[in-house]
Design a protein that fits this description.
The chain is mostly helical. The protein contains ten helices and no strands. Helix 2 packs parallel to helix 4 and helix 4 crosses helix 9.
């Protein structure tokens, strides 16, 4: 069966529109939580991207004809991919912020020493970061964060027709602002454990001054790890509420991201 016959079989009648739509969908799948995970098979990711492109295609109008110039066509496809990537980053940065919070907690508790002294591969995360990452992904899927990104992607085709994505300074600034949310989310998520460990370290410092014979260094590791784990467990319900609020705020963030890539009329 030839390629056109296969495309007709799945309902693709307009090849330029399918190429532009699939470019934007591929950008979403490159960054969106769950689909961008290293454990997700590439074949499954590609099949899901093609399926979503075919589903979105009938609701769109005719796409502009792709230019014959290879450079111009590359710029158009890159712009479409960047729009999908920006939409996916709205959810990805929220998840990465929680993983960053786990790394901060591990460092404050002293668990990161195992990563420094052990034989973990470069870039691997310790247990607290992984646990918080899976916890955040569970909350994200439970509250429909992935559906919010799909709806935002579908709405982006109404705001930005295929082939008319505008790569401007406003879009780059929006992505930079999104990147900054990683640190704010990480600090907020790690705040309960950080405060508990700060108080524990102050108490150990006072104890070391009061009892000079006491080996505070040897005592600090079990105390900080125990207090950190207890505070971590106690903070999980509040962290779940914080993540739920973040997922519920995704529609507004996706809307602002899409608006940054639309053409602003000149007055």
């Amino acid at each position: 069966m030839t390629a056109p016959g296969l495309l007709d079989l799945v309902g693709v009648q307009d090849m330029p529109a399918f190429v532009l739509v699939s470019a934007r969908v591929s950008g979403l799948f490159l960054a969106a939580p769950l689909w961008s995970m290293a454990g997700m098979p590439k074949s499954v990711r590609a099949a899901a991207a093609v399926l979503l492109s075919v589903i979105l295609l009938p609701a769109l109008g005719p796409a502009p004809r792709l230019p014959d110039d290879q450079l111009a066509m590359s710029v158009i496809l890159a712009s479409e991919t960047l729009v999908g990537l920006a939409i996916g980053l709205t959810g990805a940065f929220l998840m990465h912020g929680v993983v960053l919070a786990g790394e901060v907690m591990s460092m404050q508790m002293g668990l990161s020493l195992g990563q420094a002294l052990g034989s973990l591969p470069e870039g691997a995360t310790v247990g607290v970061g992984q646990l918080l990452g899976y916890f955040a992904l569970t909350i994200y899927l439970t509250f429909g964060g992935h559906l919010t990104l799909y709806q935002g992607l579908a709405a982006s085709f109404a705001a930005i027709p295929p082939g008319q994505a505008l790569v401007s300074l406003a879009g780059g600034r929006e992505i930079a602002d999104l990147a900054g949310t990683v640190f704010s989310v990480g600090i907020r998520a790690a705040a309960p454990v950080m405060v508990a460990l700060l108080l524990a370290n102050l108490a150990l410092a006072i104890l070391g001054k009061a009892v000079p014979q006491l080996n505070v260094m040897m005592l600090a590791f079990p105390v900080t790890i125990s207090i950190g784990l207890v505070a971590f467990g106690a903070a999980l319900p509040f962290l779940a509420q914080f993540l739920a609020a973040g997922v519920e705020g995704l529609p507004g963030q996706v809307g602002r991201t899409i608006g940054a890539f639309t053409a602003v009329p000149v007055r």
